[in-house]
Specification:
Mean pLDDT: 97
Distance between the termini: 58 Å
Oligomer: single chain
Number of helices: 23
Largest sheet: 8 strands, parallel
Strand content: 15-25%
CATH superfamily of one domain: Immunoglobulins
Strand order of the largest sheet: 9-6-5-4-3-2-1-10
Shape: globular
Structural class: alpha/beta
Number of strands: 27
Radius of gyration: 27 Å
CATH topology of one domain: Immunoglobulin-like
Bound molecules: beta-D-glucopyranose
């Protein structure tokens, strides 16, 4: 259809039909829609009629070609104008082939492989009838207590923005041209990753300056890449729930950023205006969200119940509804649904593509690249002639897919013991559980110690079960559960090398793990191929290259702790600092235990002194930074060379360093390569006190190194100074 046909379709619609397009309901509602009899269950609870269902515009969570085709077919029979349904769901890090959780993907710093993973997820989703994925989630987070940090790529604006673009390209590509794509919905707008105390759904209060500087760019990056949809956040932002926040949704998103795609509420978020205490009843909640420009109400029925009344009473213009409907119809049209309402749903293709070897291979490669080696006192890689004890609650555990992997299944998942058995004569692998995740018995412990005492080396597979992170998965104590720490200590007392492998969804306080293990691998939730990927690293078939995309705190009391902090007026390490009256903790360091960008390898690298092409540029000139990186080990490896910048004097305070670029290099033993970066004026801009985005003439520091801490620096100037 062309746009004028879509506009005339809107004209042909009754108000009820229009409102239906603005509602999204979960799959069970459509399964009962053919039965015109008694209304029961969820329909009754939500006060929905059969006519409401027939006019509803989109479905949440349907999956499988058979199911989606059946629902669509029935709907087209029932819907007076034959407007097809949109099928949406959360394909966050894979559909059936589960890739590592996004926080892990963030640690790969591999934008191309991230894009590839999203493309394969889209392919599996598209053949099973999906049209839109509620991803990418790009909420910047400095909050390890918050359970949903695992859904985002971490704490850095620049890195998150890069991943946001990659994910959108992978999922969505060119919707009208490319095969097997789904539309992207970036979420959660805005600043959902900064809840007070790390408690999910909690208050977010931050200056517009901080919001623009750090939190908004990744959403904007997704939109610049053409992302078709935006989802609101559950939190309040500066006193107003995001879902009813006119400034956020109309002024910023629509007027300033010119977003003309579809805006959807998060699940039940329209209703939540009531407990938030900004709407006195359901009708006012509907009015506020419609006025704020939320096109689709997810999983509540206030739009159905009150929109006609609001229009009749003159509180809401019908044109507001028409605009929202048109945006939704345009998306349906872009997806080609008017011509082919079943799109790429196909049971034969499902069999061909889902869990195809290529998908599993990418899942394995990406998982291995996401693993971060935190410590290694010559304990890794393992020698497969040794007897290896594999102990701990994740030794043989399929709970390694992580939250938001509803399409994945245990039977497809490669556990760690299976991955290790692929490498090792099984007589050499001794397995014991040792403890559960949060509880355990003395007998389990003793069995594990006995097993471990027969081995040359011990691998302790520890972590959090997947419900300990994800939505509503906040924790105030971010250490491993006590029972697992005890297991680790006891294993260490056997006097053999102990390697801890961690499966979890947040930066943990790992001090005790570091203390009692000779090597520590952060494996996150690595997905379907997790066991193979971790075994690839353990046995040295893959050299670890992951670098943290979120700082690991020294202890929870430091949180939020992030690398790009400000100096304060009393920095601790200033040459003239006093002993006491400086910004510090009396009992712990200020610094993270493992900083952003950190990660070891089986190789060692040497960085030469960096050189600058000039120490002074005008706004039209470029500066080149060069550094030679040498692999000084016997092992080939991949290194991520990172470039940070500090603006020494600003109109407002500037971070001590900010990531501005990075390059991945692969180096054979003894090989040296020159890594080159270009710096130009546009990279030096920031939000001034009046929120103007520009650079200042003045002095800057540029840093290069393997992480945000161990870096060398040089100074340069911009402009006429
Ligand atoms: C989550 C969203 C998700 C939605 C639909 C909500 O609870 O916050 O991220 O997309 O559910 O499943």
């Amino acid at each position: 259809m062309n746009d004028s046909q879509l506009t005339s379709l809107v004209k042909d619609m009754t108000l009820h039909e229009k409102v239906g397009q603005l509602v999204q309901l979960a799959t069970p509602f459509f399964k009962g829609a053919s039965d015109k009899g008694q209304i029961t269950g969820p329909m009754q609870e939500m006060g929905l009629s059969h006519e409401d269902i027939e006019n509803t515009g989109s479905v949440l969570g349907a999956s499988g070609a058979k199911e989606t085709i059946a629902i669509q077919r029935k709907h087209l029979e029932d819907n007076r104008l034959g407007i097809p349904l949109l099928f949406m769901s959360d394909i966050v890090h894979g559909f059936r082939t589960i890739f590592p959780v996004p926080l892990a993907i963030g640690c790969s710093w591999d934008l191309d492989l991230a894009e590839k993973s999203a493309a394969l997820a889209a392919k599996e989703a598209a053949v099973s009838g999906g049209h839109v994925t509620f991803a990418p989630m790009v909420d910047l987070s400095r909050e390890p207590r918050w359970g949903r940090g695992m859904e985002s790529t971490g704490e850095d604006t620049y890195l998150n923005s890069g991943f946001a673009r990659s994910f959108v390209r992978g999922f969505q590509g060119d919707l009208q041209q490319d095969a097997y794509k789904v539309a992207s919905c970036v979420k959660h707008f805005a600043a959902y990753g900064a809840p007070e105390g790390g408690r999910d759904y909690n208050t977010v209060d931050m200056s517009e300056w901080m919001l623009r500087e750090s939190y908004l760019p990744a959403y904007k990056a997704a939109l610049d890449e053409g992302c078709e949809m935006v989802m609101t956040a559950f939190n309040i932002l500066n006193g107003i729930p995001s879902t009813g926040n006119k400034w956020l949704m109309r002024n910023l998103l629509r007027d300033e950023w010119n977003f003309d795609g579809v805006l959807i509420s998060d699940w039940g978020a329209v209703k939540e205006l009531l407990p938030h205490g900004v709407a006195q009843d359901e009708k006012e909640a509907a009015l506020k969200t419609l006025r704020a420009g939320v096109d689709i109400e997810m999983m509540t029925s206030y739009y159905f119940k009150y929109t006609s009344e609001l229009v009749e009473e003159g509180l809401l213009e019908e044109s507001t509804i028409d605009e929202a409907v048109l945006r939704i119809l345009r998306l349906k049209n872009k997806l080609g649904l008017f011509e082919n309402p079943y799109r790429e749903a196909d049971e034969t293709d499902e069999k061909t593509f889902i869990l195809a070897p290529e998908h599993r291979n990418v899942a394995r490669e990406l998982a291995a690249k996401s693993v971060v080696l935190l410590k290694n006192e010559q304990a890794l890689p393992l020698n497969n002639n040794n007897n290896i004890a594999l102990v701990g609650p994740f030794a043989n555990n399929t709970d390694i897919l992580g939250p938001w992997s509803w399409g994945g299944s245990a039977e497809d998942t490669i556990t760690l013991d299976t991955g290790m058995k692929h490498r090792l004569n099984t007589d050499h692998l001794l397995i014991a559980e040792g403890s559960g995740i949060e509880t355990g018995t003395e007998q389990q412990l003793q069995e594990a110690l006995q097993t471990a005492s027969r081995a040359d080396v011990i691998v302790a597979a520890l972590g959090e079960h997947s419900d300990m992170s994800g939505e509503a998965g906040s924790r105030a104590d971010i250490r491993l559960p006590e029972i697992q720490l005890e297991l680790l200590k006891q294993l260490k007392s056997l006097g053999k090398p102990v390697i801890a492998v961690l499966f979890n969804g947040r930066p943990l306080d790992v001090r005790e793990v570091i203390e009692h293990a000779d090597a520590v691998l952060e494996a996150w939730y690595p997905g379907t191929e997790g066991g193979n990927a971790v075994a690839d690293i353990l046995f040295g078939d893959v050299n670890p290259s992951g670098k943290l995309s979120m700082s690991f705190p020294h202890s929870v009391g430091q949180v939020p702790v992030y690398y790009n902090q400000f100096n304060t007026g009393r920095p601790k390490d200033a040459p003239d600092a006093q002993i006491r009256f400086v910004s510090q903790y009396l009992d712990i360091p200020n610094e993270a235990l493992f900083p952003f960008g950190y990660g070891l390898s089986y190789s060692t690298y040497h960085y030469s002194e960096m050189s600058l092409s000039t120490d002074h540029i005008t706004p039209d000139e470029k500066l080149t930074v060069k550094v030679n990186v040498t692999n000084t080990s016997e092992t080939s490896g991949e290194e991520t060379v990172q470039l940070y910048i500090r603006d020494l004097v600003g109109d407002v305070v500037r971070p001590l360093k900010e990531l501005k670029d990075f390059k991945k290099v692969t180096l054979k033993p003894g090989e040296t390569t020159t890594v080159e970066f270009t710096i130009e004026e546009s990279q030096l801009r920031y939000y001034h006190a009046d929120l103007d985005y520009k650079s200042d003439a003045g002095e800057f520091e540029v840093f290069v190194g393997p992480n945000s801490r161990d870096i060398q620096s040089r100074k340069f100037k911009l402009g006429n100074v």
